Every structure is written in structure tokens, then in C-alpha cells.
DNA sequence: GACCCGTGGCC
DNA sequence: TGGCCAAGGGT
């Protein structure tokens, strides 16, 4: 843990507008927040460094992802790619493998691409200029503020999910804080509250508070350093904030999956970079019309047709495996996997699989080689039902 | 501004 | 159980 300044005085705290109900006491409350953070901050691996590259990696991994999930990925990543140049020089396949299971796989490819830009255009060091930094793929407003405040002490206020929740409660903000006017109000308040003496500590303290005290359900207002200036707490209903915008219905899709095995190998293809699970390797999958979702005969027929059209294979569809339900943020799917075998292939099973429409590649993969490919979680659940060696 | 993009943990 | 949430960014 690096040494924060010894003084706690929020002398450089921006002055709140005249008549602001929080203005009189907010400075001492923010000072208590900083003191709380220094005493209670978790000892996380990325808090033991000021290397901008390491901070950057942690911030990208932490996007929409909880700390406990990130820690092991972060350790493995830094061990394999300790510097920007190591990442830039790596194969994309290896980069994706180190991200496998973390989700939002475009983050990994952006990190990789950005590392190559940094080597080519910035001498191998992250740009300290926020405009240049924001130009890198996968680097948005949050990541710019986080990296430059934490690694370089620049006076940029971060706004993430934690900050939105904390400030929405602090102000009893009726607008949803994640968009439009509500988002603008949150950003303005975050800028006002920023502690210029140590922006990195301040930003992390606010996020840490949201992660551990001002949590979504059952916030621990009894131990919150900001409780005495929190309007929502004063109202006795902190959980009423943040208000939420109406959420849309999540569609449910049924997919038939071919577990096509030949000579001890299984057929995989790399998914297109654009769209869901981009760049990952997957089993051949075909969507079913809503009406046919539970019709086993329709599933088998859909699979045979798809394998012939997309891969040039005439397949024998064997026994059904256990269906695999899987929930994405915006989508719910159920996979219906079937064991399949090759009955015939135009030009032979292997050559028939080159460049199917919409796919970059298709390959027969031996069981021992599966580990060299990044696979979606749901696909891993399907393959886990098999018993190697494949026959 | 709306929508897309993963996964695991929580109750 | 299913909805909700998490240190967001791109289009």
C-alpha cells in the first residue's frame, strides 16, 4: 500500500454552490470518508502498485465485474504479461485464453489492440494525456479518470456504479443516475466533491464505500462515514435510491448444439468477432424457431440441415445430452446438445470445414487441445458432459 | 439515447 | 427461482 498524504484537511475541496444543503458539513464528512478508507481499505493486488499499465489492466477487468472474480485473473495476467510490450507481442489466442471466463471478451481484444498502439505510438508507456488515453480502444471516461487519478494523481473524478449509488443516496436523487439528466447531475456532484490533494485516494474511497458500506441492499448506514450528510439516510429509506429506469424484457432463445465427434476429435469453430462471444471457439449451434423449441424431431432435423449447409457435413444425430440453461445480461438461452457423428463429407470431413459462411475458421480439436482454445462457459458445460477419450 | 456485450453471486 | 447487481465501452 502506497503512502497517502498524512494531512486529512480537505482544504482543496471544491466549494459547493451557495444554498447547497450539503455545503456546511460535507467537507468534514468527506474527510471522514478518506480516513475510513485509509483504515479499512482492502489489500487488493492492484493497490500495491502505481504502474499505470497494471492499474489499467485492473480497471478494464473490473468493468462490470466483481473484485473477487477479477483477482485471480489479474494475477495470472500480470504474471504472463508483466509489461505493455509483453501484451502487445502476444498472440490474440493466448490473450483470449487468459480472459476465458471473465466475460465481455471484447475487453480483452481491445486491451491487446491498445497495447500494440501504445508500443507503436507512445513508446511503450501509457499516455498521461487524457485525450490520447481516451483514444485507445476500450478506454472510456471511467477508465481515463481511474487510471490517471490513481496512477498519476490527476484531478479527474470517477463515476462508476458505486459512485452513482452513493451520490444518488447522498442527494436523494429522484432521477435515474445512469443516464440523461440524472447522469449529468451525478457527474457534476462527483466533480464538486473531488479531493484535489489526492484524487486517486478519493476516487477509490468513494468506490470502496459503495462496494462495502453503501451496498445495493441493506446498506450499513450505522457505520457509514457519510451518514450524517446523506439525505436518503435522513429519510430513513436509503434503499429507495438509486431509482431505476424501467428494464426491458429479456428474450429466451433455444439453440440446438452439435457435439460432433470424429476420430477422437470434436468440431469447433471460431465465432465472428462482432457480436456475442466474439472470437471465442464454440460448438456448431443453430437457433430453433419458437414453435419448435421443445420438439426433439425438429431439433434433430434443424441440426442435420445446418451441418450440411454450413459445414458440408452429412451427420448422424445421436442421443441428446442434458440441456444447458444459460443467462446473459440481455438474453436467456437454453442449449439442447446432441451427440453427432459424421456420416459423409464432401471431400472428406476435414477439408469440408474450411471457411463456413460467417465463420473465420472451423477445426477438429482433440480433447487434449481444448485447453488451447477460449470457450464460452455454456459450451464448457456441454463439453463437461462428455467422457474422454472421445469416441 | 437505446441497445449490445458475459459471468458469478446474492436473496 | 429469477431478477438484480457488479470499479463500462462501443455503436
Structure description:
- It is a single chain.
- The chain has 391 residues and is an alpha+beta fold.
- It folds into two domains: 10-240, Hypothetical protein, domain 2 (Endonuclease III, domain 1, Orthogonal Bundle); 252-383, Nucleoside Triphosphate Pyrophosphohydrolase (Alpha-Beta Complex).
- 40% of the residues lie in helices and 14% in strands.
- It is built from 14 helices and eight strands.
- The protein has helices at residues 23-40, 52-61, 67-80, 84-89, 92-99, 106-121, 130-134, 141-152, 161-171, 180-193, 199-212, 231-235, 296-311, 377-383, and strands spanning 252-262, 265-270, 281-282, 285-287, 313-320, 324-327, 332-345, 362-366.
- Strands 1, 2, 3, 4, 5, 6, 7 and 8 form an eight-stranded mixed beta sheet that branches.
- The radius of gyration is 25 Å and the shape is globular.
- The termini are far apart.
Distance between the termini: 53 Å
CATH C-level class of the largest domain: Mainly Alpha
- Output the radius of gyration: 25 Å
Beta-strand share of residues: 5-15%
- Classify the helix fraction into a percent range: 25-40%
What coarse outline follows from CA principal-axis ratios?
globular
Amino acid at each position: 500500500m502506497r503512502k497517502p498524504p498524512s494531512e486529512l484537511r480537505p482544504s482543496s475541496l471544491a466549494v459547493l454552490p451557495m444554498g447547497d444543503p450539503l455545503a456546511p458539513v460535507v467537507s468534514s464528512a468527506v474527510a471522514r470518508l478518506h480516513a475510513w478508507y485509509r483504515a479499512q481499505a482492502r489489500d487488493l493486488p492492484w493497490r500495491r502498485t502505481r504502474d499505470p499499465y497494471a492499474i489499467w489492466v485492473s480497471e478494464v477487468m473490473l468493468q462490470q465485474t466483481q473484485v473477487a472474480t477479477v483477482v485471480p485473473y489479474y494475477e495470472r495476467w500480470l504474471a504472463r504479461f508483466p509489461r505493455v510490450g509483453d501484451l502487445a507481442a502476444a498472440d490474440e489466442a493466448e490473450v483470449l485464453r487468459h480472459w476465458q471466463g471473465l466475460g465481455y471478451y471484447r475487453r480483452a481484444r481491445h486491451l491487446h489492440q491498445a497495447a500494440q498502439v501504445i508500443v507503436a505510438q507512445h513508446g511503450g508507456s501509457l499516455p498521461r494525456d487524457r485525450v490520447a488515453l481516451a483514444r485507445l480502444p476500450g478506454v472510456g471516461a471511467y477508465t481515463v479518470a481511474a487510471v490517471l487519478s490513481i496512477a498519476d494523481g490527476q484531478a479527474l473524478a470517477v463515476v462508476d456504479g458505486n459512485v452513482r449509488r452513493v451520490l444518488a443516496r447522498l442527494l436523494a436523487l429522484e432521477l435515474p443516475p445512469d443516464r440523461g439528466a440524472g447522469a449529468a447531475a451525478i457527474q457534476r456532484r462527483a466533480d464538486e466533491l473531488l479531493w484535489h490533494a489526492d484524487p486517486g485516494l478519493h476516487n477509490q474511497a468513494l468506490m470502496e464505500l459503495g462496494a462495502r458500506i453503501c451496498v445495493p441492499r441493506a446498506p450499513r448506514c450505522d457505520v457509514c462515514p457519510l451518514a450524517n450528510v446523506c439525505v436518503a439516510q435522513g429519510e430513513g429509506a436509503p434503499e429507495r435510491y438509486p431509482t431505476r429506469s424501467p428494464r426491458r424484457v429479456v428474450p429466451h432463445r433455444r439453440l440446438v448444439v452439435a457435439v460432433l465427434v470424429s476420430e477422437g476429435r470434436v468440431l469447433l469453430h471460431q465465432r465472428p468477432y462482432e457480436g456475442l462471444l466474439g472470437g471465442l471457439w464454440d460448438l456448431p449451434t443453430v437457433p430453433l424457431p419458437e414453435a419448435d423449441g421443445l420438439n426433439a424431431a425438429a431439433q434433430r432435423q434443424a441440426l442435420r440441415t445446418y451441418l450440411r449447409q454450413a459445414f458440408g457435413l452429412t451427420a448422424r444425430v445421436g442421443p441428446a445430452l442434458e440441456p444447458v440453461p444459460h443467462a446473459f445480461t440481455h438474453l436467456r438461452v437454453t442449449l439442447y446438445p446432441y451427440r453427432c457423428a459424421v456420416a459423409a463429407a464432401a471431400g472428406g470431413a476435414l477439408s469440408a470445414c474450411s471457411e463456413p459462411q460467417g465463420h473465420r475458421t472451423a477445426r477438429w480439436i482433440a480433447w487434449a487441445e481444448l485447453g488451447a482454445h477460449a470457450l464460452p462457459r455454456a459450451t464448457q458445460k456441454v463439453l463437461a458432459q462428455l467422457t474422454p477419450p472421445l469416441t
